[in-house]
Amino acid sequence: MDTLIAEFIGTSILMLLGIGVNANSSLKNTIAEKKSNWILVSMAWGLSVFVAVFVTGQFSGAHLNPAVTLGLAIIGKFSWSLVPSYFFVQLMGAMFGSWLAYLTYRDHYIATADENMVRGTFCTGPAIRNYKNNFLSESIATFILVFGIFYIVEPNLEINGEVVNFGLGSLDALPVGILVWVIGMTLGGTTGFAINPARDFGPRLVYFLIPRKNKDADWSYSWIPIFGPFTGALIAGSLFNFLM
What we know:
It is a single chain. This protein has a single domain (3-243), classed as Glycerol uptake facilitator protein. The protein is mainly alpha-helical. The two termini are 33 Å apart. The chain has ten helices and two strands.
């Protein structure tokens, strides 16, 4: 499987399952409505990462996250020349996966009048709107994610005859999923733990494009789950290089 196709598929799977649990636990008349809690959402996002990494890790390294790609490039475990193409397919995969989740729950989206609830199934938002602290929360949570991944990265892939340490392999899918689960349960309560620029921006674009009245994509907040995770990844990479 081509590496970029694998990264697209992996990010699509992650978004389909992740946005799916958001929809299932929030939208009107779903089976899980009012029967779910934050532990379920956090666990489902962690397990979504596990599934996506397990399926595509052997082909692309399964970064599935521009912040992870940036961090791995900073510490020399990923080629800078591939960073732009990975960013692009991660964003496209995030949009495609969230669109599939929308199609799955379309009747329930139509039945749900609370527009904030609908938007919240697609993208993150702050529990308390304070841009400085929201940015800090996303940076810290993503730092933990990326810094933890640095010590999980092991596999080597052969690309065009060259052996490259590329990212996450199938055997490392479970610890990464657990890491995301823990971050969600412990640090996710402030902003909904985007910890992934593509995860937030891609679904936000899909929400902006779907036919709904009175929708508000909250663009004034949208920069936080983009630049916060990138900042956390930059700090994680810099610290790792210093320590190692």
